[in-house]
Amino acid sequence: MSALPNSGGLAPLELSRWRKVPGYLIGGGLVLCLIGALVDLKQFGYSWLLAFMFYLSLVLGAAFLVMMHHLFDASWSVGIRRFCEHLACLVFPWMALFFLPIALLAPKIYPWMSLNPTHDHDLAAKWPLFT
Predict the structure, then answer these.
(1) What is the pLDDT of residue 6?
(2) 13-43 burial, b if ≥16 CB within 10 A, otherwise e?
C-alpha cells in the first residue's frame, strides 16, 4: 500500500485560463469609475472618499498592529505580524496615489472650503477648526 492518497485518476486543476481575470476586473472597475465621474462628479467624490477611508482604516489598523506586536515583543504573533507588515508596507504607497482624486475634488466634497467666512458668522466661528 502506498503512502500517497488515490487521486482517482483525476488530472490536476488547470487554472491558467483564469490568470487574466483580475486584470479584466480592474479594467472594468476603472471604466465604471470614469462613467460615474462623468455622470455625477460630486457623488463620485463622496463615493471615492468613503471607499478611500475604508481601505485607509485597514492599512492604518495593520500598521497599528505591527507597532503593538513590536512594542510587546510577542513571539506568538509572528504569523499575523508578517501579514500586517506586508499590508501596511505594500498598500500604503498606493493610498497616497488614491488620495489624489480626493484632493482634486475637495472643493466639491467640502463646500465650506470655497465659502467666505466674513459673510457667515457660523463659519467664521468654526474657521479655526476647519483650517
Answers:
(1) 59
(2) eeeeeeeeeeeeeeeeeeeeeeeebeeeeee
pLDDT of res. 105: 93
pTM: 0.74
pLDDT tens, position by position, 101-117: 999 999 899 887 777 77
